[in-house]
Design brief:
This protein has helices spanning 2-6, 17-41, 45-76, 85-112, 125-153. It is mostly helical. Helix 2 runs antiparallel to helix 3 (45-76). It binds protoporphyrin IX containing FE (HEM). Protoporphyrin IX containing FE is lined by residues 33, 36-37, 40-41, 45, 48-49, 52-53, 56, 105, 108-109, 112-113, 125-126, 129-130, 132-133, 136.
Length: 160
């Protein structure tokens, strides 16, 4: 399994299998959130709830398993660097917006399952959920830019 993750990727860039898989799964999660959005518009709130809960859970796995370690190694520890300024800038903006999406998105899911204290139980679902959806969307677009910066544009692609 570890060997497969570190094997060359399948998208024809300098990325390994893990990075290509992360990109595709991130786009898939955004697709799930968009289906969930559509279900809410149609008033199918129970289906909406479970689709969005699945998307948020998959996002947690992707961030904790496949994004945090490369961030630590190639941004915080600058392993194999220094690289172009855009490498650090694009990744840091992606991580910053992604952090907000992660916190708000998971908070919204916990609220939806009534797992937050009464004081934090907002009722303006549309405002909170549209904001969470927008943040996930921007984060995904920034994630695609990050992939491009790391494995296509940079002169020293990270190897892991
Ligand atoms: C357990 C989790 C969730 C529950 C129980 C839930 C429930 C609801 C409900 C009841 C509404 C309708 C609000 C209204 O019409 O006033 C709604 C709308 C919405 N939800 Fe969720 N939701 C959950 C998770 C999420 C997540 C994680 C996202 C974002 C990724 C999200 C995105 C949206 C959006 C964008 C709308 C607005 C749709 C519109 O414009 O009509 N939801 N949700």
């Amino acid at each position: 399994m570890t060997n497969l993750l570190h094997a060359p990727g399948f998208l024809g860039t300098s990325a390994n299998f893990a990075a290509d898989m992360t990109l595709l799964l991130s786009i898939l999660v955004m697709g799930l959130f968009s289906i969930g959005f559509y279900l809410a518009r149609k008033g199918r709130y129970d289906a909406h709830k479970w689709v969005q809960t699945s998307g948020a859970a998959m996002n947690i796995v992707l961030v904790l398993w496949l994004m945090l370690l490369p961030y630590r190694d190639f941004i915080l520890r600058d392993s194999g660097g220094p690289r172009e300024g855009s490498f650090y800038l694009v990744t840091s903006i992606h991580a910053g917006v992604g952090f907000l999406a992660f916190i708000l998105g998971n908070f919204v899911v916990l609220r939806g399952h009534r797992l937050v204290p009464r004081k934090l139980q907002f009722n303006n679902y549309k405002l909170f959920m549209r904001t969470a959806y927008g943040l996930y969307l921007v984060t995904t677009l920034l994630g695609i830019s990050t992939y491009y910066t790391w494995f296509v544009a940079t002169s020293k692609p990270p190897v892991f």
